[in-house]
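Bench log, entry 3. Co-assembly request; chain sequences pasted below exactly as received.
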Amino acid sequence: MLLVRRRAGESIRIGEEIEIQITEITPTRVTLGILAPREVPVVRSEVRLTRDQNRAAAGPASLESLAKLAGALRLR
Amino acid sequence: MARCVTRYFGETEYEESAILRFPAGLPGFEGEREFLAIEQPEQRPLVFLQSLSTPELCFVTLPVFAIDRNYRLEITEADRELAGFRPNEEIRIGENAACLAILTIEESGVTANLLGPVVINLTTRLAVQAVAPQISYSHRTPLPFEGGARAGEAPGCCS
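Structure output for the full assembly:
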């Protein structure tokens, strides 16, 4: 992994069209400004995790397995 | 009354006012904008999020408090706005909002996505899958989770 040290107000470029600006730094988080072409999706990594999880969750489950799960939840 | 075909329960009738609208869809399903929340007595406490445009698409969910009674919702400003909450409006699950975790049911077990729960504004019927701004919960929380409220205590949910 490439590591780059930057201060607030500085930026880096990825290729010709993507620029990432360090907008604000606090002790616990940084705010990034991202300039990228419209066709480049920019999402937080957690959104990507949720996308993949949604796709897995959309797979079919049998009604019997659901009834079993519901029963187990009711019995707790 | 309108009718739709569901993934698990055949054809069902519903009121226009029951439709949940997701202005941005869900991650991976951006084109899916309208869902019904279906609750069946024999499947309680599960809540089924049935797509109105794709009969085969139905997410199986649980109210977050049925999984973790101390669950704390974290939501970005952008998601609050998408679900139609007013700027200073407090989101109270079980009162003006419902909060459902999507389940993934696999042979190895069942997990719940507590990182990105579905948040429904019960006033506007707008909904969003609100991926938390900080990672405090897992997108694959194993079930059963011992911290869950008993099913009978779970807020009964999306109406």
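Residues 45-57 of chain A form the longest helix (13 residues). The mean pLDDT of chain A is 92.
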